[in-house]
Amino acid sequence: MYEKQVQVINETGLHARPASLFIAEAMKFKSNITLIKEGKTANGKSMLNVLSLGMNKGTIITIKAEGDDEQLAVEKLADFITNLKD
């Protein structure tokens, strides 16, 4: 298992369009991806799960992965979140 905390910096947060882009990126990895916000967890490859976390600008989330490519997955997804511009 590998995990990393990141802050959502996108002005509009992780709403539908950016969430779909995040999920498309997450689907490239074999590992199971989990997002954690304030103790609430979501499957990082599920649109409904990701949107249910309500990630607005400034939200701190933990990206966790478990599997063959866990470290690469977390690092790439963390970069995606921190560089996301709407």
From TrEMBL:
InterPro entries: HPr, HPr-like, HPr-like_sf, PTS_HPr_His_P_site, PTS_HPr_Ser_P_site
Cellular component terms (Gene Ontology): cytoplasm
Cell location: Cytoplasm
GO annotation, biological process: phosphoenolpyruvate-dependent sugar phosphotransferase system
Keywords noted in UniProt: Cytoplasm, Phosphotransferase system, Sugar transport, Transport
PROSITE patterns per the UniProt record, alphabetical: PTS_HPR_DOM (PS51350), PTS_HPR_HIS (PS00369), PTS_HPR_SER (PS00589)
Ranges of residues in domain HPr: 1-86
Pfam families: PTS-HPr (PF00381)
Record keyword Glycosyltransferase present: no
PANTHER family the UniProt entry points to: PHOSPHOCARRIER PROTEIN HPR
Function field: General (non sugar-specific) component of the phosphoenolpyruvate-dependent sugar phosphotransferase system (sugar PTS). This major carbohydrate active-transport system catalyzes the phosphorylation of incoming sugar substrates concomitantly with their translocation across the cell membrane. The phosphoryl group from phosphoenolpyruvate (PEP) is transferred to the phosphoryl carrier protein HPr by enzyme I. Phospho-HPr then transfers it to the PTS EIIA domain.
The protein's name: Phosphocarrier protein HPr
Organism whose genome encodes this protein: Clostridium grantii DSM 8605
Organism placement in taxonomy: Bacteria, Bacillati, Bacillota, Clostridia, Eubacteriales
